[in-house]
Amino acid sequence: MLWSPFGDRLLCCRIKFSLTPVAPFSKVTSTNSRLENPHTIEALYKLSVDIGKVRKFKSWVLSETSAYVSETAGMLREMGADPSLIASILQNHPEAILCHPHDIKEQKNLWMSVCASDRELISIIEKFPAAFFMMSHHENQRANIVYLQSLGLCKRIIGKVMASAPQSFSQPVQRNKEVIHTLRETYLELGGDECNLKVWLQKLLGHNPFVLLWPAAAWRDGLCFLTDQGFTKEEILGVVSRLRASIPELQPETMHQALSFFEQVLDCSKEELKQIVLCCPAILSLSVPTLVQRFYGLMDIGLNAEQIKDCPAVLELTTQMVLYRMHKLSSCGYDIHSGNLDIIVGSKRDFDMICGMLQQRHQKTMVNTATPLRSVEE
């Protein structure tokens, strides 16, 4: 065995190396034939970004020669993002590090025209990073913001549409003007008042931010179908206003199949069918397989067709959700089989509030039942 004067020194180096955390080495991934940028890897590592996840879904980002990791993180930090949020944003949308700092600054200024504060903006970036870091259509975005503001729409609605459906802001403003013009004509033709047009538009966009992505012609097909089904202008306006799925999204054939299903399983007349739609327009957006699954699922857990006819909104919930709420109501002393299903539908907040009230009433009833009656003499 040969002796080496450097043996102890090498051993110390090895121990020191094993105890010191280091960034993952740059490598060539199976989905990307280009070598990763070591500076990008190191910068992301320092921010506690899960590099393995980035490699798995967006490996090409790590190979780009120009990346602005620290600059992007710094701007997010200035807007109020903490280290864990910065890591989460860069991990879920690593393309953000490829945006030039100047472009990000311009984008922030653009978004602040529809956001009340940095805190609101960073909340949007957390949920919709792709919408904020879309840098290729600045001019279209700006023109669309100015146009929607000229209609008197509030910042909150414009920001919601911009975040949820960024494509509607990247397209030329003329396209959105055409859709808004069609919406205005539709509203007025159906008996709407010009004075309430702004409120109606805000409600429509608030329900469905993707409205502007549909061509104007698609609106006419859906409206003509409802007219052919015997709905009056006032009734159609009500359906359009309450329907979370935009009318252009619903093909006439799909709506026809949904109505035919209800007519058959509920054994109702055309007028009754119309009232069901007016009560719950959302059923028009449910596919027949979904309707079949939910309807017969409700029947299997003990509900009947008459209850569903009286409260069609119950079909907006999954069978599992209905069953869960039924059990919770039962624990509060309420028997849904002999009551109205309206108590089941609604938001989680509303349902929890109702359960709280029923629980208090149930507890009082139990206490009164358990208290022995006093004698007349006492």
Q: What's the arrangement of secondary structure elements?
A:
Blueprint: H1 7-19, H2 38-46, H3 51-58, H4 69-78, H5 83-92, H6 101-111, H7 118-127, H8 129-132, H9 138-150, H10 155-164, H11 167-170, H12 173-189, H13 197-207, H14 216-228, H15 233-242, H16 252-265, H17 270-279, H18 288-300, H19 305-310, H20 319-331, H21 348-370
Helix pairs in contact: 20-21
Structural overview:
- The protein has 21 helices and no strands.
- With 378 residues, the protein is mainly alpha-helical.
- The protein has a domain at 17-135.
- Helix 20 packs parallel to helix 21 (348-370).
- Residues 1-22 and 370-378 have low confidence and may be disordered.
- InterPro entries: MTERF, MTERF_sf.
List keywords for this structure.
mainly alpha; 21 helices; 61% helix
Quick summary:
It contains 21 helices and no strands. With 378 residues, it is mainly alpha-helical.
Shape: globular
As a percent range, the share of helical residues equals: 55-70%
- Main sheet characteristics: none
Cα(first) to Cα(last) distance is 106 Å
Which ranges are low-confidence, i.e. pLDDT below 50, for 5 or more consecutive residues? Answer: 1-22, 370-378
Radius of gyration: 29 Å
| Strand elements, count | 0
**Count of discrete alpha- or pi-helical segments spanning 4 or more residues:** 21
GO molecular function, one term: nucleic acid binding
Pfam families: mTERF (PF02536)
Keywords: Transit peptide
Family: Belongs to the mTERF family.
